[in-house]
Amino acid sequence: MENISTGLKWVIGIIVTILIIAAGVSIYLIINNYFIRAQEQTLAQTQMINQAEFNSYDNKNVSGQDVINAAMRYRGRPQFTIIIKTGVNKAGFYAENAYSTYYKLAIPQNGETAAEPINYSVKNGSAEAHSVSEMLDQSEIKSTNIGNFNVNTLSIFKSTVIRDKNGEVRIIEFDQNKATK
Questions:
Q1: Distance (Å) of CA 147 to CA 28, 115, 142
Q2: With helix as H, strand as E and coil as C, how does the chain read?
Q3: Which residues contact 105 (CB under 8 A, 6 or more apart)?
Q4: What's the rounded Cα separation, in Å, for the pair 128 and 100?
Q5: For residue 116, which of 94, 107, 110, 145 is within the disulfide window of CB 3.0 to 4.6 Å?
């Protein structure tokens, strides 16, 4: 009788141990799904917040002061370019950034010449970038402002946000000539 009692204790102990392990595994699997879902939602919200900062520049009319503010704000952003085209300087110029990253805009098809997309792997080495102080320089001295890189803070610019194939914002173009008055 004693052997049966000992055997039953062992069997019950093993069954209880298996039940505890099974409960732990099932709780882990349930909680793990919640953690994965929470991580995905957090990532989606982070991406939405990161892209939301550019909504004020996405196909909108902005003031010259907004152009200056964007040049200062995104100066330290890697793999990012700001292109400014004024009424006088229609070809445009680049706002200086800390990484010397200046992408060329895409070239649309012109007659028989094929369109040329933006190549984000190639930096525009011949780009001439200008600082915010040069953009605010209103002097008439030809040597300091020869290309007329002045941005009038009261003028209106049409802003365009250009994203790469991953949806990351890489270029903001400000064009005074396209602005609607």
A1: 65, 28, 8
A2: CHHHHHHHHHHHHHHHHHHHHHHHHHHHHHHHHHHHHHHHHHHHHHHHHHHHCCHHHCCEEEEHHHHHHHHHHCCCCCCCEEEEECCCCCCCEEECCCCCCCCCCCECCECCECCECCCCCCCCCCCCEECHHHHHCCCCCCCCCCCCCCCCCCCEEEEEEEECCCCCEEEEEEEHHHCCC
A3: 83, 118, 162, 171, 173
A4: 10
A5: 107
pLDDT bin (cut points 50, 70, 90) of residue 131 is confident
Q: What gap in Å lies between CA 17 and CA 10, rounded to an integer?
A: 10
Q: Considering the entire predicted model, what is its pTM?
A: 0.67
Q: What does residue 157 show for φ and ψ, rounded to 5 degrees?
A: -125, 145
| pLDDT at 25 (0 to 100) | 94
pLDDT of 127 higher than 70: no
Residue extents of the structural domains in the chain: 1-52, 59-178
pLDDT one-digit tens code per residue, 17-39: 999 999 999 999 999 999 999 99
